[in-house]
Amino acid sequence: MDTQSAILAFSQSEKIKAGLIWASQTIEMVMGLPDQNKPGAEQVISVLISMVANEIHLGMKIAPHEHWEAALKHINNAIVMLNSNVIHDAPYHLSKALSHVTSIGQTAMTHLREDGLV
How does pLDDT run across 26-54, given as a tens digit for each residue? Predict the structure, then answer.
């Protein structure tokens, strides 16, 4: 990983981690809503998760790393859970994606530290 890729990977990983945490927290909130309010809230969550997936695609292009693909797989699994009306299983997949994205950020930060940039 070169320095520019490390900077981009770290930046993307932080942005994506925030989105994954927001999505997971929102799902937890939605599970407590009355049934009549859930469909609209689930649509909002689906859009949020799709935006996170788009950021992962961007990360794959600007800072290639093997963990992006694994993270995207878990994001797609979370979307399937939402679309299949088993929203309570989606946070599991989001947390797995978060783990992969965190690994990318750690790798990037290690590179930046070794180069004396942070």
Answer: 999 999 999 999 999 999 999 999 999 99
Pick the closest to residue 118 from 10, 13, 17, 18 (CA basis). Answer: 10
Tell me, yes or no, if the pTM score tops 0.85: yes
The token pair that represents 74 in the structure block: 């878990």
80 CA to centre of own chain? 15
**Single-letter residue type at 51:** M
Per-residue pLDDT reduced to its tens digit, 59-105: 999 999 999 999 999 999 999 999 999 999 999 999 999 999 999 99
From the number of C-beta atoms within 10 Å of its C-beta (0-12, 13-18, 19+), residue 2 rates as exposed
Structure tokens at 66: 């093997």
Cβ atoms of residues 42 and 87 within 8 Å: yes
All structural domains of the chain = 3-114 (1.20.120.660)
Three-state SS across 47-83? Answer: HHHHHHHHHHHHHHHHCCCHHHHHHHHHHHHHHHHHH
Amino acid of residue 82: L
